[in-house]
Amino acid sequence: MRILVIEDDDETADYLAKGLRESGFTVDRAADGREGLFLATSETYDAMVVDRMLPGMDGLAIVQSLRAQDNATPVLILSALGQVDDRVRGLQAGGDDYLTKPYAFSELLARLQALLRRRAPDAASTTLKVGDLELDLLARTARRAGKAIDLLPREFRLLEFLMRHAGQVVTRTMLLERVWDYHFDPQTNVIDVHVSRLRQKIDKGFAPAMLHTVRGAGYRLSAEAA
Amino acid sequence: MSAGRLVRTTAFRLAAVYGALFAVAVVALFGFLYWRTLTLIDAETDAAIASEIAGLAEQYRQRGLVGLVRVVGERAAAQSGSALNGSNVYLLTRADFTPLAGNLKRWPAEARRTPAGIVFDLRGEEESGVGMARARIFVLDGNFRLLVGRDLRQREKLRALVAEALGWGLAATVALGLLAGTLVGRKLLKRVEAINRTGQRIVQGELKQRVALSGAGDEFDRLAENLNAMLDQIERLMTGMREVTDNIAHDLRGPLTRMKARLELVLLGHADPTQFRAAIEGAIAETDRLLATFNALLSIAEAESGAVHQTMQAVELGPLAADVAELYAPALEEKGLTLATDIKPCPPVSGVRQLLFQAIANLLENAMKYTPQGGRVSIAVGAEGAGAALAVADDGPGVPADMRGRVLERYVRLDQARSTPGSGLGLSLVAAVAKLHGATLELGDNNPGLKVTLGFPPAPPKAEAEAASTVAAS
Questions:
Q1: Size of interface A-B (CB pairs under 8 A)
Q2: Are residues B339 and B297 in the same domain?
Q3: What phi and psi values does residue A30 have, to the nearest 5 degrees?
Q4: Residue A46 lies in a domain
Q5: Does residue B94 fall inside a structural domain?
Q6: How far does A143 lie from chain B, in Å, by closest CA?
Q7: What is the least distance, in Å, from the CA of B357 to any CA of chain A?
Q8: N or C: which end of chain A has fewer CB within 10 A?
Q9: Parallel, antiparallel, or unpaired: how do β-strands A2-6 and A141-144 relate?
Q10: What's the confidence (pLDDT) of residue B1?
Q11: DSSP string spanning B311-348?
Q12: Do B116 and B136 contact (CB within 8 A), yes or no?
């Protein structure tokens, strides 16, 4: 997978590139807006990480320009501006996700992987299947190994999200945003409790354990062992 | 202040305009008076001439030409001095204009015709001529010519008088106008200069300066009041910003120093991979804590700065509170606490959804942290007056009455809480969010425990319409 990183701060860019390469991506770098846009339009990438404040051309302008050229490469916008309006503006400009600095690399990685996964749409299907876990999106029911599992509405949504991102790391912030539709920083482990309850329902009494905790990052639902 | 600046002031210009208007008025008034008086004088002159003529006509009738000559001579002589210093003018001549009697040396060579006779210039008679004379001319039997007139000395005097008066009047008007303009202009300029100077000093960094009020309650004072209010706001914002940077610096320094120390320690010793791993994990955990504090501080700053550019939307507090409750319910259960929700319908409030969620979450987290096992936490939402009220209550140790103001400040933590993890920023954020939303924040006794109440004003009508349409659409 090829990723383009447009970031003017050398150290950040180095750190990002290194982290991404170690995660198995090929990384190209641009240090200013114009160079970034040039690379984005002349080469194909699977995803882009674009800093909002860039010399030469603002990050949002780059995204808008790409979208105007019918380029649908997923873009993760990085910005020090974190107010609600800034996020909205970033997403309206055509960005697919918006991460505010300071951020944890694990967060960025998880979100990037989520973006890449989104490119293969299977929205038409009404069931999700991971291992022997099945989710019926119409009937709002869950089964594992044929056995029905009783889930509360929120638990269902949580499981749905995890299954849609099966095999990927999903951070707590991502869960808060997508499953609860809020963007904030909890002081306590409030999400963890929801996840552990879900784990009780879908993993207890079944093998193998599918809902894994990834230390320092988040969670991953996978039929294979961690 | 320079003359140039003075002249360009509005005050001076106004004074100049008024001065010009007054000058015009003065000229008009004097002109009118002059004209009226002139008319009067002319009428009097003509009347005087007519009565003279009546007298002379009588003489002529009774005594003939000889008598006329004698009478004209007598009357001419009766005028003091020469014709030029007397008032009446007489001249009787033969047909060939040779003078027979009178006080004119010769028949006037040039004369202007008027409806009542002629007007001619007396100045030809002597050097010190007084000016003009009005006269009537008669042609008698035998082509003798009789001229009876009166000089216009009075008229001349009046004209001179009026001209002089007008001159002085205009000069006085202009001078007064200039003086008034200068004085008023200077006064106003001084007030404006005072404001300008204050502004300059503030720009140069003396933030505490304010524009002085004169106490007159006039428009300048109002301007000064508004400017001062603006400056107060700017000072608040700047102080807020400075506080934030101070806080961030403070907050970064501690944990970073700790982190550095711990890592250095590990490097110094003969650590094995497990210890290295532990040190790195500890550093990451510390970094996470730093990030959380960072975000919290920025959220507070964002809320405190009034965030004018945040878009306020219509928010239904009921569903929002229910969401928070639902998110925290399992965690509360784990801690052995019961959560009671009492959500009643209430009008929408104008606000920022994310910040409100964070505020309620902070309150719940506090309740969770400080209420011992077996306790009870409740969230209540309902209408209050025209707006909405939200209350989070617990039956934990509560906050003593004398600390209730202070706990809202940053980093303030109650003594008994010092051992529990936390940044001390939770309530500060709630306070900042309340301020941003124009809501009241009250900390009260829940007997036992703490009850935090937020009172929101109603949303403006437009927001209500938005809320209605959002609800309808969903």
A1: 70
A2: no
A3: -135, 140
A4: yes
A5: yes
A6: 23
A7: 8
A8: C
A9: unpaired
A10: 54
A11: PPEEE-HHHHHHHHHHHHHHHHHHTT-EEEEEE-----
A12: yes
The residue type at B392: V
Buried b (16+ CB within 10 A) or exposed e, B181-202: bbebbeebbebeeeeeebeeeb
Specify if B185 maps to a domain: no
In which band, very low, low, confident or very high, does the pLDDT at A125 lie, cut at 50, 70 and 90? confident
How far is residue A187's CA from residue B234's CA, in Å, rounded to a whole number? 32
Residue B359 and residue B297 share a domain: no
Residue in B136, B141, B135 with CA at minimum distance from that of residue B66: B141
Closest CB from B302, B331, B357 relative to A182: B357
Residues of B in contact with A82 (CB under 8 A): 295, 298, 302
Distance between first and last Cα of chain B: 67
Considering only CA atoms, which of B224, B229, B167, B150 is closest in space to residue B192?
B224
Does B365 lie at the interface with A, CB-CB under 8 angstroms? yes
B302 interaction partners in chain A (CB closer than 8 Å): 82-83
Name, in order, each residue with C-beta under 8 angstroms of B439's C-beta and a sequence gap of 6 or more. B349, B433, B454, B455, B456, B457
For chain B, say whether A89 makes contact (Cβ under 8 Å). Answer: no
pLDDT surpasses 50 at B472: no
CA distance to partner chain A, nearest, from residue B360 (Å): 11
Instruction: Write out pLDDT tens, residues B291-337.
Output: 777 777 777 777 766 555 556 788 899 999 999 999 999 889 888 99
Residue in chain A nearest B299 by alpha carbon: A83
Total count of domains within chain B: 3
Best mutation target among A84, A100, A108, A172 (most B Cβ atoms within 10 Å) is: A84
Mean pLDDT of B30-52: 84
The answer to whether the CB atoms of A186 and B281 lie below 8 A apart is no
Helix (H, G, I), strand (E, B) or coil at A133: strand
Contact A7, A51 (CB under 8 A): yes
DSSP state of B440: E
Q: Is residue B164 part of a domain?
A: no
User: CA-to-CA distance for B124 and B13, rounded, in angstroms?
Assistant: 50
* pLDDT for the residue B150: 82
Q: Which of A30-44, B198-212, B380-394, B433-447 bottoms out in mean pLDDT, i.e. has the lowest?
A: B198-212
Order across the sheet with A211-214: list the strands: A170-171, A218-221, A211-214
B296 shares its domain with B352? no
Tell me the residue range of the domain where A216 lies. 127-221
A185 and B292: CB-CB below 8 Å? yes
Q: Is B302 on the interface with A (CB under 8 A)?
A: yes
Q: For residues B444-455, give the mean pLDDT.
A: 89
Quick check: A82 contacting B, CB < 8 Å? yes
Chain A touched by B449 (CB under 8 Å): no
pLDDT at B397 over 90: no
Residue B109 contacts residue B167 (beta carbons within 8 Å):
no
Exposure b/e, A207-223, CB count within 10 A at least 16 = b: eeebbbeeeebbbbbbe
Q: Residue A17 carries which side chain, given as an amino acid letter?
A: A
Answer yes or no: do B323 and A216 touch at CB < 8 A: no
CA distance A163 to chain B (A): 20
Tokens of B55: 């007298």
User: Are B292 and A197 in contact (CB < 8 Å)?
Assistant: no
d(CA B437, CA A27): 45
Nearest-CB residue to A194 (from B311, B330, B357): B330
